[in-house]
Amino acid sequence: MNAKVLRVLEYDKIIRMLENKATSDPGRELCRSLTPMTDAGTIEQAQTETADALTRIFQKGSLNFGSNKPLGMCLRSLEIGSALSMEELLRIAGLLENTARVKNYGRSDKEEAQADSLTEYFNCLEPLTPLSQEIRRCILDEDTIADDASSGLKRIRRSMVLTGEKIHSQLNSMVNGSARSYLQDAVITTRDGRYCIPVKSDYKNQVPGMVHDQSSTGSTFFIEPAAVVSLNNQLRELEIEEQKEIAVILADLSAQAGEHTVEIAENQKIMTQLDFIFAKAALAMDLNATRPIFNDDHYIRIRQGRHPLLDKKKVVPIDMELGKNFDLLIITGPNTGGKTVSLKTVGLFALMGQAGLHIPALDRSELSIFTEVFADIGDEQSIEQSLSTFSSHMTRIVSILANADADSLCLFDELGAGTDPTEGAALAIAILNFLHDRGIRTMATTHYSELKIYALSTDFVENACCEFDVETLRPTYRLLLGIPGKSNAFAISKKLGLSDEIIEAAREQITEQDINFEDVISDLEASRITIEKEQREIEAYKKEVEALKQQLQAKNEKIDQARDRILREANEKARDILKEAKDVADETIRMFQKAGPGASMKDLEKSREQLRGKINEKNANLSVGKKEPVKAALKPEQLKKGDSVKILSMGLKGTVSTLPDARGNLFVQCGIMRSSVNVKDLVRIEEETITTPSMKRTNNGKLRMAKSFSISPEINLLGKTVDEALSVLDKYLDDAYLAHLKSVRIVHGKGTGALRQAVHQHLKRVKYVKSYRLGEYGEGDAGVTIANFKD
pTM for this structure? Predict the structure, then answer.
């Protein structure tokens, strides 16, 4: 791929974005060297690796390869048997530890999980854990060897400590004793690695020993007393032995590392490649990009594509296709309408796709493999070469025409501009014909009406325009296929305040044929807007009808269920009433038969009243309004702390705080209020209790029923805005956690990914959420997130 097109289409900025996603220097270097490829197998492999890495990031989070430092010189030194420094050995240990973390990340949580394109990379990593642990045991940091690195080093350092203590003891006796009056300060210092004391210049002959230094003013001499010269010598000898022992330790560690130079080099190679792959996946996630489908027919179809260098919250997506029904697309419309952005988007997508990067567009977008992409975009006039705007354009066009073939993609911005409009339009048509006859996929932007007519009258050539709102004088940046665009010069000029007289004079300069052509374009645009509006309304009606249909079905199902339940309950109740009536009738008959002819009327009337009381009781039970039974007064011994009660005089519910005293008075806690009441003013409240194996039991095996117990394990956020969804989700998560659910299923859909990212960001902030992941196959894939709660 030629270097100029990479610069013109700003591919280098995409590479810088990719480089920022890598976490190691070798990985960033590999990102910088990424260029578009032309081999189909290599491209598909790169795309598969990016897709698999993106899936792993969604499932397990991102990876860090920061300990992967350049080791080229270290490995070459090991190969020839040289000893490495502490810093170099720590770099190897860091790489091996990072390798162990990456290998552990690559292990699947489920044994039946299917291998992907990255599995082999993870399997080939060799952490060499014993080597990294040995290096870490012996080397504490870049300047310090551990005392336990070897028995010899431990002995030497213990001797150094003892010798140093002897020197300090000897010097302290001098500093705090006989030599105190000779000293400038009562301190012990060092000069050239030997312990000294600061002696006033007037008394330097009073302290026998070796002079090592003098202060800048000459008032102080730093003297090593003769009493510690021998001890200082011993300390110096021990320091030399220490350095020799450290060299032996480093040589031994280097020898151990030298036995694994092949594994270390392979680890670094794989770690660098994985860092590069996961950087591509991280960029895809940041751009909300998807994997394009590649075809062999030079067919491009972009669904809701967004230029990756523009703000994804503001950029207007475009739908575009080229190479199926037409191989040449001419885009027209006013300036700043988005023509050049559309051109660059297509070219940049082609480069990104062939480099193994995902593109910021909806899934099922299609690209083809081009051996070359040519672009004439922007003005590169050269004063030194005496090239005008037109000349610079034409120079590049000549080069493109000489090198382009059927496997090329050509992009032209303002083709034929910079010269006489008539000649420029003629040249543009001739150039497009040349490319069209050779089957070269081409896109061109222009203002020339002649090119609009050319597209309308030529097979396999199509018009497109960038929509412009004349009322607001603002482009909408929507790319519309099949419709030629208008320059809207008169309408824009009128809106900006140009007089009607001048505008009418300008209209008179246009031929009737041009006016008719512009009117046809205006009619087409009006018809398109009307059709699009009607299509949107129809789609809205369809959705509304479908929603009403589902509501009606749900309502009918509820009615059917309620009807069946009511009939069943009514039948059961009727059966009970009939049984009770039969029992009463039988009892009445038995009673009269037993009474006989000589029975007392008083006894019969009493029995009749009893039967009437039973019947009235049954009638009362069948009535709609059921009176609450009067509860018996509480006795002090019936209450205990923690009982739920109701204060009759106040109508408040609370909890017993203290037991009743001799007069029956006690305290009841009602919320934040603590009231003193008499036991006669209280009734006990019997709260409903449940026993459930799914929740933690109390001592008596019961748990008070809460409202949140009936919470659903799934919430559906489809159709909601981000703010609405997060508000509903926050309340739902609280209820689900209080209901002791282990996990919940959040349905947010795939779409543009904005709702999914908002849900994930919210879950990160919820303290009681232990982890979350995207749904797997059969769970809803990327349209569902599974959140697990902490115990």
Answer: 0.61
